Amino acid sequence: MAVAEAPGKVIISGEHFVVHGATALAASINRSVRVEASHSAKPEVVSNLRDGESLLPAKKLLESLYRERKVAPNVKVVITSEIPDGAGLGSSAATMVALTAAVSLLEGWYRDMPGLIKAAGVGEKLVHVNPSGIDVTVSAMGGVILFRVGQPPQPVVLPRPVRLLVAYSGRKRDTGRLIAKVSSMKDAFPALFSALCDSATLASQMSLDQLLKGDAAALGKLMTYNHAVLGRAGASNARLDGLVDLCIASGCLGAKLTGAGGGGSVIGVPPENGAPVVEKLKKKGYNAFITEIPCGGVRAWIASS
Ligand code: PMV
What we know:
Elements: E1 2-13, E2 24-39, E3 44-47, H1 55-69, E4 75-81, H2 91-107, H3 113-128, H4 134-141, E5 144-147, E6 154-156, E7 162-168, H5 175-188, H6 190-213, H7 216-232, H8 238-249, E8 255-258, E9 265-268, H9 275-283, E10 287-293, E11 299-302
Parallel strand pairs: 3-4
Antiparallel strand pairs: 1-2, 1-11, 2-4, 2-5, 5-6, 7-9, 7-10, 8-9
Bound molecules: (3R)-3-hydroxy-3-methyl-5-(phosphonooxy)pentanoic acid.
């Protein structure tokens, strides 16, 4: 059988505005989705996220991969995700990337990185309707990436690893609805929205500069600033604002929602010793963890079943 593992992601700066042409900064994280693909008499997709948002699109993606090659999809796919579904941490993108990689390896269909991203993006579109493509790109390539629609993704080499706190609000977010909500501001105030896109690009560049310098305090301040702008644009809510405040009160140097918002997760810059912050958040009932960036991208290999 063929096995592939693809990581989830966090968006450090530029979500939503990236859909409208701004530059975003994103990184893969230390949580992933594993897909095992093996030949079988009839097509079957099994997932530990039984009613997850990506299950049906995964089935459709599988069909389309085989339809493209005019081959019957006689394959069993087992999906095991350690990324909470609907948490804004890229679980659906990681599923699509891992599934595409595993099936392609099983069938001997060669795909280079852009080809893999394009094929997996077909499935991601079924989940999020009009995604920018940032999630599948980061999951496939891994590492830290500057991303702008229509341009080749720019991988960034960090001189040293950086730790980020990730905390799931416990509420699923609806990316399609949130994109439409934030986009409605563009319709109402096009010039203002265009200025916000320019400022998001600048914030992404500045966040990258701080990552490269290793200036945790400045990176944290930029995160809190980004959260305020995203809130004004309609992506936050009381629960996410409260979680950002809690991260900061618990010792983070700054925090923001990550991904679509309206639910999903928050990221923060932890202090030197992040463990007490994670403990405090866990005591309040949040699923929190520390990820070091950079983490790797998709990996695929043949295993004996
Ligand atoms: O679906 P999420 O929560 O990972 O958010 C993706 C980021 C957005 O900018 C809101 C949408 C996109 O496709 O870029």
